[in-house]
Amino acid sequence: xxxxxxxxxxxxxxxxxxxxxxxxxxxxxxxxxxxxxxxxxxxxxxxxxxxxxxxxxxxxxxxxxxxxxxxxxxxxxxxxxxxxxxxxxxxxxxxxxxxxxxxxxxxxxxxxxxxxxxxxxxxxxxxxxxxxxxxxxxxxxxxxxxxxxxxxxxxxxxxxxxxxxxxxxxxxxxxxxxxxxxxxxxxxxxxxxxxxxxxxxxxxxxxxxxxxxxxxxxxxxxxxxxxxxxxxxxxxxxxxxxxxxxxxxxxxxxxxxxxxxxxxxxxxxxxxxxxxxxxxxxxxxxxx
Length: 288
Hints:
7-stranded mixed beta sheet; 42% helix; Rossmann fold
C-alpha cells in the first residue's frame, strides 16, 4: 500500500457491500448501511444510483467484465464470515479482534455483537480515513480502534501498550490481508493469536498459492495480479490448501472449515453463479 493512501481494494470491497445493500431486502445477503461512507465521489454516486435495478445490473456487469468473480466472491465471503462469527459468539466468544480491519463494519451491523467488545487494528492511513468518515455516526464505546504500522511495530508491542486481554475467548477476523504479507509476518501473527485462551478462534482469508505460481490457471488470474500490482497492493503470499491443517496445528489451532470461493458462492447465491476468484478461500480454526 502507498505510504500516503488508503487501501483501494478495501474501498472496492466497501463498494460491493454497498451494491448488495441496494438489492431488495428479501434477496440481499446482508445489509451494510455504512459501506457507502467509505466510497470516493464517483463510486458513491454509482452506489446511490444502484438503488435503481437497471443501474445495479449495469454496474454488476461492468465489475464482472473488469474483475471476473470478484463481486460475487466478495459478497458471498462477507456473508460466510458473518455466519462463522455469529457461530463463534454462540459458542462462547467474549470479544472480537479484527486485524487489518479496513472498512469492516461488523462491529456496527451484526446484532450478535451488540454486547461484545470489538478491537479493530489497522494501518494508520486506512484507520484515520475510516474514523473520519464515521465522525458523524455514534460509535459504540465497546468498539476500540488501534493503529499499527507493521514495518515499525509488532502486535505484541501493541498489545503490551494497550493491555489486551488474552484471558477471554476471542474471535479474530483476518480478512483480505494474508495475501499481502511475508511468510515471517504470517508466522508472527499466528504466534500472536496462539496467546489467546483455549476456545478462541480465527476466521481468515487466503489465496491458493497456485495463483501466484500459475495465474493463467484461473479465469482472469493474470490480469488481476497485474492490476493489484499497479495499485501498489501486490499479492505476495498464499497457502497450499492441502498443507494448511498441519501449519495451523503448529500454532495449536484446529482447522474446522476451509472453503473456496466457488463453494461459498454456491452456498449463498446459487442463482448468481459466475466464474472467477476460485483461488480465494476462507478458513475457520479454533485454539485447542
